[in-house]
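Researcher: Please translate sequence to structure tokens.
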Amino acid sequence: MYVWTFGDGSTSNALEPAHTYLNPGRYTVSLFYNNDYCDSTLVKNQYIRVVDAPKLGFSVASQRGCAPFLAQFTDTVSLNVTKKEYLFSDSTSWKIVSTPKFNYIFNKPGHYWAVQKLYGYTGCVIRTDSIQLFVSKGVSISDSIHINRASYDIDNILHLHWLPHSASVNYQVLKSLNGVNFSPLNQTKDTFLTDVSMPKSQVFYQVKAMDSCGSFSSSQNKVAPSYIAGITQNGNESAIIHQSLQQGFGLPISANLLGSFNTKFPFNLLQADPSNPFADLNFAQKDYLRKCYHLLSQFNNQEMYSNNFCLDYVPIIFIKYI
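Model: Translation complete:
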């Protein structure tokens, strides 16, 4: 007869028993043998040592981000571990990690898993899908927004248009009076904006894309719509028209100065590719009180207008002696 005791309260009468220990610790194993003639006992003090299996444990600062997304992990495992490895599902290679804090970059948008694998002292391996991460398409400073139109209407409202970016959730429009110091004008989800501020000089615009993580792109071009102003000369004998040409779109195919004796219409061609400044020798006309000017710049497949600038006639008083 065989009587095995395993030190955890369990026994067996098998010749070669197998026993599973459920809790960590050191266990004394004993065997009592009787063959009806004699008894024999063998005791092994603290013969079996059972250690805890490695317990999984790690966290990530944020499970969501925009590509390229820098995920910041914290490893909380230290007990009974000889080696730690991680697999990120955008890769096929396991990464050995030996520090409690580490980073990993997901370069493309998608849904990913971070998998932890632990090696214990007895050679046991534990692995599980632990954390899912969600990476959205993002923008970076290497991306840029291209403004493709900046034109005034007849009421001097500026209409700005730009090309879309697929990762943008908002666009930030910036404005400057000198082309150097830009200030935020507005944010919009659209790819166009109107600026109703009455122009007093040439103004400059930039547009940047913003993604869902709050990152901004750069602005590909700094643009300024054409701006014209002028003065009368020699008591309405002529007008001198100064032109600040369109900037940020390259050279126009042509630029035409238009004029009207009404505030808004009809505008007729005064001079193709006018000199700057341009002397309008037909400024004053009978029965009118002012003359208005528009500069039309022609680019590939589109036209852009300057502000509508109106110049009042200078009052002239005639004194008749009797």
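Researcher: Any highlights?
Model: Residues 2-50 form one domain.
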